[in-house]
Amino acid sequence: MFEQKENTDASRDIEVVEIFDDQGQSMVFEILETIEDGGKNYFLLTSYHEENQESNDEVAEDVFIMQEVEIDGEKMLAHLEEREVMEKIFAKFREKHKDNFNFE
């Protein structure tokens, strides 16, 4: 989990990704960061909130780490199962963004 500090940069572009579960349910996430490690791409995601939603309050959010995979020539995001890899990728994210977030 992390708590986002107030963003004073009004020009910040937000990238989102829509993910469908096995039942076809759609979920929208904000892409916080893409990290390359060992020739693989990992996406750090958090729940997406509409811009008109109150965002001045500091709110704790979960971070999800997914790995980019290619299946039948199509790139997709898959759950990352290896705990050691998750910890390594999250440590890189935490170090890079230590001034932007309060990490729990």
Please characterize this protein's 3D structure.
This protein is mainly β. It has one domain. 13% of the residues lie in helices and 45% in strands. It has one helix and eight strands; from the N terminus they run E-E-E-E-E-E-E-H-E. The protein has one helix at residues 83-96, and strands at 2-4, 16-20, 26-37, 40-47, 60-61, 64-71, 74-79, 101-103. The strands form two sheets. The chain has a five-stranded antiparallel sheet. It has a three-stranded antiparallel sheet with strand order 5-1-8, with no helix packed on it. The radius of gyration is 14 Å and the shape is globular. The termini are close together. The model is unreliable at 1-11 and 52-56 (pLDDT under 50).
Quick summary of this structure?
The protein is mostly beta strands. Helices cover 13% and strands 45% of the residues.
Q: Top keywords for this entry?
A:
3-stranded antiparallel β-sheet; about 100 residues; disordered N terminus; 5-stranded antiparallel β-sheet; mainly beta
**N-to-C order of helices and strands:** EEEEEEEHE
Q: Into how many domains do the coordinates divide?
A: 1
Uncertain segments: 1-11, 52-56
Secondary-structure content class: mainly beta
Number of helices: 1
Portion in strands: over 45%
* Helix proportion range: 10-25%
CA gyration radius, whole angstroms: 14 Å
The overall strand count is 8
Strand order in the largest sheet: 2-3-4-6-7
Principal-axes shape call: globular
Main sheet record: 5 strands, antiparallel
Distance between the termini: 6 Å
* Average pLDDT score: 80
